[in-house]
Design goal:
With 367 residues, this protein is mostly helical. It has a domain of 228 residues. It is built from 16 helices and 2 strands. Strands 1-2 form a two-stranded antiparallel ribbon.
């Protein structure tokens, strides 16, 4: 498919993005679709369908164990700010972040509950926890990351990690609802809360980050998502299986030392992952600053407009001084510049369709 070749004052007059409320670049020649009902940008058909069943589950848990819902939301306030901080160099639209989060709370949860319950009933809880859960849960979360690619929201490595984090966080919160409700009934609520919500809230985001990393690399290197990213999905499943296996072993043997060792290894993995992500974020910011003069010349950006983004502190200060209603507009301009910088930094042949899309986003943001 091709985008129209001219530069139009209104980018929406030259193209629009659709794919189950996603984003496929299509030539727009008329307004025949203008009156068709559309889902909000933060929603999609799979999320809507699975959301009906997920809402029923959460409602039942809220009635039977309200405390499990309150405690289950704690990781949102621990992991969420970390994901927002990592995403500041090229801030993703909140509609896309919300969609990724909802994918984890709905599609990934419903699919996992159904499949894991069937496997557990047929082959036992151990097989369900160590084999089925890692495979099904990570696969369903990986599809959520892939959905962000189909919506044209994912442009690079850090984007892959960010969307993986939001999908996994959504999944982990609903899973905690289930665990805490069960623990509340059996009298082990506080211990379960400490382990899952306070000591290991980053567990699911760390597992799924491998899939996001692989898909982000595939996009940045212009590779086919499948089979290029299978290694990342496989690593996500393997780390998840290792974690579940250690907990299952500790539970069956009564050896608390197994949990201590597993938690220690998990903390080391967490430190290594955070260190790596901070370095990637710094490299991303450096690349963005280095390419700003090129972007200014290429797209006729004034020095006054450019000066806001040449220093990270100035960028944050300028955004903070804006009224809240204008910050999303500021983020759109920031995001458009960052995505164009990432595009021009990519090796390989140019992609005129993607370039036109990114230029249209910049034009809209500046207008």
């Amino acid at each position: 498919m091709q985008a129209s070749s001219g530069w139009y004052p209104d980018p929406y007059a030259q193209a629009k993005f659709r794919w189950w409320n996603g984003t496929v670049w299509t030539h727009h020649t008329d307004n025949t679709d203008a009156d068709k009902p559309r889902l909000p940008a933060w929603l999609s058909l799979p999320v809507l369908i699975a959301g009906v069943f997920a809402a029923m589950i959460v409602t039942f848990l809220a009635i039977s164990s309200p405390i499990s819902i309150l405690l289950g939301l704690v990781p949102l306030f621990l992991v969420g700010p970390a994901l927002i901080w990592l995403d500041r160099v090229e801030p993703e639209p909140w509609s896309e972040r919300i969609h990724a989060f909802l994918w984890g709370t709905t599609v990934a949860v419903v699919v996992s509950i159904v499949v894991n319950s069937i496997v557990g009933a047929m082959y036992g809880e151990t097989v369900g926890a160590v084999v089925s859960a890692p495979i099904i849960e990570e696969a369903s979360k990986a599809v959520g990351i892939y959905w962000a690619i189909r919506r044209r929201a994912l442009d690079g490595v850090m984007d892959g990690v960010i969307y993986a984090g939001w999908v996994a966080l959504g999944f982990a919160i609903v899973e905690d609802f289930l665990y805490f409700a069960t623990a509340d009934e059996s009298g082990f609520l506080m211990g379960t809360f400490i382990v899952r919500a306070l000591l290991t809230p980053f567990a699911h985001p760390l597992f799924t980050a491998w899939a996001g990393l692989a898909m982000g690399l595939a996009v940045s290197r212009k590779k086919k998502i499948l089979p290029y990213s299978l290694w990342g999905v496989a690593l996500a499943m393997a780390t998840h299986a290792a974690w579940n296996g250690s907990l299952t072993l500790a539970d069956s043997s009564g050896e608390n030392m197994v949990i201590v060792v597993a938690a220690g290894l998990f903390v080391l993995l967490f430190i290594a992952a955070i260190t790596t992500l901070v370095k990637v974020r710094k490299h991303q910011a450096k690349r963005f600053f280095e390419l700003l003069p090129f972007l200014a010349d290429q797209y006729k950006i004034s020095q006054a407009e450019l000066s806001i983004f040449t220093d990270w502190r100035n960028t944050l200060r300028a955004r903070k001084q804006l009224p809240k209603a204008d910050r999303e507009k500021f983020d759109r301009l920031h995001r458009a510049l960052a995505r164009l910088a990432l595009f021009h930094h990519h090796p390989g042949e140019s992609d005129p369709v993607t370039l036109k899309r990114l230029e249209a986003q910049l034009y809209e943001a500046r207008s």
